[in-house]
Write a structure and sequence with these properties.
Blueprint (H helix, E strand, L loop, with lengths): L2 H16 L4 H4 L18 E3 L10 H10 L8 H15 L6 E4 L2 H12 L5 E6 L4 H8 L3 E6 L8 H7 L4 E7 L11 H10 L5 E5 L3 H4 L18 E6 L12 E4 L2 H8 L9 H12 L1 H24 L11 E5 L4 H10 L2 E3 L9 E5 L3 H11 L12
Parallel strand pairs: 1-10, 3-4, 3-5, 5-6, 6-7
Antiparallel strand pairs: 2-8, 7-8, 9-11
Helix pairs in contact: 3-11, 4-11, 5-6, 5-10
Length: 381
């Protein structure tokens, strides 16, 4: 643990004592946490937003509860401390890190910094759509290129559309909604051939679930010598802090400074900064959540194969699979049975995206799947 992080956590402990009038912070009872699987009184099992169903580890929950006592203060000092901690964890300089209200704000900053003025965005189809919306708000058009037969990015097709007017290329890897990988070696060759004026965003929201292999490695932790690459990360997925909205990007200082001009002032809340610090430090808790997801993902494939289904190979905390029927019909069937799954993702109109839930939630998913009137017919498809 770095000295800056030790000082930060020490200050948090002091803050907890001075804030002892807050019952939640002063409690001496052991912290227990049971994450919400549904919204207020709606009764739905939520397998639709790629959230972590297990919630943060106990150490992080304790920090969140203690941090309530700091909610009357702006988190300006904590912002700088968290930026340093993230930089230290990746072996980069603090001026290479920018924080956002979720990684979606990072994408908004990038869109306004590098698009507009006749610039265009190139992205996959389907992929995470936030960057396309922000490109439109910045006055730019998005060019969408379909995935290849392996559900990876069609890098050749994307290159063929890139020119001097291409301000941004967006690569989500693993990709959302397909949970598929685009090979690292292909991405490295791709970046070499991208126009020099183009910034390449690599969205690694699901990095922890992908593991390390010949197919995949992070462009933060295993960088290449190219100052046009911007890597986005989030605390929403494996760290289970989606509700607190905190993300970040790592890039060259020049790119970060251009993005900083479009950051919302005081965009990170106090509790989020404390929680993110604790999450970075709790490596054992993170490893446990990665293991649980791997077990749940394998069980999903076991159940799918028992039904003669062939999902897309998943490297994330969700799975996409072909139902051979309109996805909208399948989504409605599950909703009628109080289960929410991902919507339709054109042009993959017969595919559904299922976020992995707890074992009991996934058992409910498969019971509901078996109620589909044509589910048995897929055994012979």
């Amino acid at each position: 643990m770095t000295s800056s992080r030790r000082s930060f956590l020490r200050s948090l402990c002091v803050g907890t004592v001075t804030g002892a009038l807050w019952p939640i912070a002063a409690s001496s009872q052991p912290v227990s946490f049971e994450p919400s699987n549904s919204g207020p009184h709606d009764g739905f099992i939520r397998l639709n937003s790629n959230e972590n169903p297990y919630g943060p580890p106990p150490r992080v929950v304790e920090t969140i509860m203690s941090a309530v006592a700091s909610t009357n203060r702006y988190p300006r000092m904590e912002y700088a401390s968290l930026r340093e901690s993230i930089a230290d964890s990746h072996g980069v300089k603090p001026e290479q890190v920018i924080l956002g209200c979720g990684s979606t704000e990072v994408l908004r900053m990038a869109a306004f910094a590098f698009l507009g003025n006749g610039k265009r965005l190139i992205q996959a189809l389907p992929t995470f759509e936030a960057i396309e919306y922000y490109a439109g708000a910045a006055g730019s058009k998005a060019i969408s290129v379909g995935l290849n037969s392996s559900f990876g990015h069609d890098l050749g097709g994307m290159l063929s559309r890139a020119d001097a007017n291409t301000g941004l290329i967006y690569i989500c890897n693993p990709n959302n909604p397909t949970a598929s990988l685009t090979p690292r070696k292909d991405l490295e060759e791709f970046v070499k051939r991208v126009p020099r004026s183009t910034v390449v965003i690599i969205d690694e929201a699901y990095h922890h679930y992908a593991g390390q292999s010949g197919m995949y490695s992070s462009f933060i932790d295993h960088p290449i010598d190219d100052d046009r690459i911007l890597v986005a990360r989030t605390f929403s997925k494996v760290y289970a802090l989606a509700g607190l909205r905190i993300g970040y990007a790592v890039a060259s200082p020049i790119l970060i400074q251009r993005m900083q001009n479009f950051a919302t002032h005081d965009n990170i809340n106090a509790i989020a900064t404390f929680a993110a610090h604790a999450a970075l430090d709790d490596k054992a808790g993170t490893s446990d959540l990665v293991r649980r997801n791997a077990d749940d993902r394998q069980e999903f494939f076991n159940q799918a194969m028992a039904r003669a289904l062939k999902p897309v190979d998943s490297h994330a905390n969700f799975v996409m699979m072909n139902t051979f029927h309109p996805a909208t019909d399948v989504v409605q069937h599950f909703q009628k049975n109080n289960i929410l799954i991902g919507r339709s993702f054109p042009p993959l109109d017969t595919y559904i995206r299922v976020s992995l839930g707890r074992p009991e939630e996934m058992s409910a998913f498969w019971r509901t799947w078996d109620l589909l009137p044509w589910s048995k017919n897929l055994m012979h498809h």
